[in-house]
Structure formats: structure tokens, C-alpha cells
Amino acid sequence: MDKKQKILVELQQIFRNELEDSELILDYESSASNTDGWDSINNLMIISSIEEKFKMSFPIEVIFEAENVGDLIDYIEKKSGI
After folding, report:
1. CB atoms within 10 A of CB 14
2. Nearest CA to 19 among 41, 4, 52?
3. What is the pLDDT of residues 3-44, one digit of tens each?
4. 61-78 tens-digit pLDDT
């Protein structure tokens, strides 16, 4: 399993917890527009949980510019050194 795949697995668990959907399957193209329950309120909780899990902070511009899970994975990989 490569780094991006490992991050995706971690993110999937965070999303499942925050969106209360134990069967949610994420991929790199998952976004608020194609993932049930992922709205602006839940986005704050998701980002907070990601920051806690990976011990990092997302600059506000990254949060607003990220279009999908793939963008989050790229940022996490770049900043966390996983």
C-alpha cells in the first residue's frame, strides 16, 4: 500500500465517523457534491479530525481550494511526511 492509499484509508475512517456512515467508501474524487452528508458544517468537523489525526493544521486557503479528497491527500502527504 502506497502513502496516498494509507492516507485514504485513514481519511475514510474519519469521514465514516463524522458523517455517521459506517459503509461510506471514499476515493480520490469524493467531494462534498458527491458524498451524502458532507456539508459545510460537517466539513469543519472533518477538517478538525484530520488535523488532530495527522497533527497538522490546514491553512484556510487549502480548505477552501481543496476540491476533493485527492486534494486533501496531496496536502497531507506533502506536509506530514508520511
Report:
1. 19
2. 41
3. 999 999 999 999 999 999 999 999 999 999 999 999 999 999
4. 999 999 999 999 999 999
And the C-alpha cell for 48?
478538525
Question: DSSP state, 27?
Answer: -
- Residue 53: CA count within 13 A, CB half-sphere: 19
Task: Please report, as a single letter, which amino acid is at residue 18.
Answer: E
Q: Please tell me whether the overall predicted TM-score, pTM, comes out greater than 0.90 for this model.
A: yes
Residue 57: C-alpha distances to residues 12, 29, 51, 62 (Å): 19, 22, 5, 10
